[in-house]
Amino acid sequence: PRFFSLLSFWGKGAILSSCFIFSSPRWSFALNIWFMVWVFFAVVIMGTFMWSIQILMKQKMAWKDFGKKHNLSFEPHGVMASGVLRGIIRDHSLTISSDPQIDEDYRGRRFLTTIQIDLNLKMPTEGVIGSAGLRRFVEGLPLPEEFAPADPEWNKQACVKAQKAETLDDFFSQERTRALNSLMSIKGVNV
User: Fold this and answer.
1) Listed residue (49, 104, 100) closest to 79, CA to CA
2) Residue 72 CB: number of other CB atoms within 10 A?
3) N or C: which end of the chain has fewer CB within 10 A?
4) Residue 108 gets which letter from DSSP?
C-alpha cells in the first residue's frame, strides 16, 4: 500500500511539476514551435499522399477512356495500384501496365509503363532481344548462346540470347534489324 501511495504521489507531483515547467513563457513558445513543425510535416506528408492518389486516379481515368475508345478491357486493380489495359488491336494482343522497378543502384524504385504487343511473328528458336537498359536482365536468362547480327547497323549495346544462335541469321533481316534499332534508339524506352 505504501508503494502505491508513493507512486500516486510521485505521479501527481510529476504532473504538477510538468505543468509548472511548461506553463512558463519560454516552454510554451518552444512547444508552439514544435507543434508547428509537427503540423508542417503532417501537412506535407498528407499533401504528398493526396497528390499521389490524385495522379493515380487521373491515370486510371485516362486508361479507362483510352480502353473504351479502342475497345480494350480495363482492370482497375487496387486503390494504390495502377490498372491494366488488355485487348486486341489490329490482330495483335496488347497489354499496357505500369509497374514499379528497382533502380540500378537499388536505392529506390521508379514506375515504368510497359506496352506489350504480341507479334504474330515467331523466332526460329527460344530467344530474347533486349536493349541496353535491359542487358543485365537478358544476360541473366538461362539461354546458353549470345548472338550478334551481321548487319553493320546493328546496335552493339543491344543483347540477343538464344537456345540455338545459328538459327537466327535468317531471322535478322536488314529490315527487321532497322526496325529493332529504331525502337531501341528511342530515349527512355527499353525494348
Assistant:
1) 49
2) 19
3) N
4) -
129 phi, psi to nearest 5 deg: -120, 130
Q: Are 59 and 74 a contacting pair, CB within 8 Å? A: no
Rounded to 5°, the CA angle 72-73-76 comes to 135
All cell numbers assigned to 191: 525494348
Q: Rounded to an integer, what distance in angstroms lies between the CA atom of residue 87 and that of residue 132?
A: 29
pLDDT, one tens digit per residue, over 100-134 is 777 766 777 777 788 888 877 777 778 888 888 78
pTM to 2 decimals? Answer: 0.59
User: Residue 105 half-sphere exposure, CB side, CA atoms within 13 Å?
Assistant: 2
C-alpha to C-alpha distance for 34 and 119, rounded to whole angstroms: 60
Q: How many CB atoms lie within 10 A of CB 124?
A: 14
User: 115 pairs with which residues across the strands?
Assistant: 96
Single-letter code of the amino acid located at 22:
F
Edge-to-edge strand order for the sheet containing 109-118?
73-75, 84-89, 92-102, 109-118
Q: What is the dihedral of CA 53, 59, 60, 62, to 10 degrees?
A: 140
